Amino acid sequence: MEQEFPVTGAGLGLRRSMLKECMQSPPEVDFMEVAPENWMGVGGPLGKKFRWFTERYPFVCHGLSLSLGSPSPLDEHFLHRLRRFLDTHDVRFYSEHLSYCSDDGHLYDLMPIPFTSEAVEYTAARIRKTQEILERRIAVENVSYYAAPGQEIEEIEFVRAVLDEAECDLLLDVNNIYVNSINHGYDAETFLKALPAEKVVYFHVAGHYVEAEDLRVDTHGADICDPVWQLLEVAYRHFGVVPTLLERDFNIPPLKTLMGEIARIRELQSQAGDTDESRSAHG
Known about the structure:
This protein is α/β, with parallel strands linked by helices.
């Protein structure tokens, strides 16, 4: 049976700095994504602008602050507010980072959850509670990280175990796999193909900063580089034509430039779709 996705095609992460240009010349994208923390409780003219977009495009949300691996209690008040926001704007799907960003207060970065069996059980329980409060299944994103404190199992084992234990889905970030493969010395394609295809709901793709030959920093502040495009092509061949979102958070270029990257996503999706059809015809 063909997998059903919450959205289709190629999407764009909507940022506030893009609003004016996107309203003047609405981009031809299949869906958009926002961080709900940036829009929950926003009213007035800015809230009306956001509603303008949610009435015209399918939306998904990608959270920043739930802190699934945090030692502090799960923020259930936030989750109840989030559920109302998702319902109000008919958001198709919600995802969060497989990381943490808080304890007594919020941090300014996403910290890696220790790759341990204990952390699998702890994080999975918090994801299950999140799904219960939101009354919907969610996805977690494989994250970029720069150190692995207390590691007892491999990253891929940790990710797969959390997905199984939590009974949740996967937002597969192609750029994060590439960044981690450079920073931690593993084969990106091998990692990619070890992820469970049946759990994937959509892809993220983005640019990063080259700090050194053996160090990449996940900034979402640059154009997508050739190795990431090549890994995305591998991902389509392996998983099929999965909906894909372009992320750009800093150094945001004109919309025309972003649409050039959207066009390349669509081109790779089309090529992968043609290959799938050819296989079916000769199968």
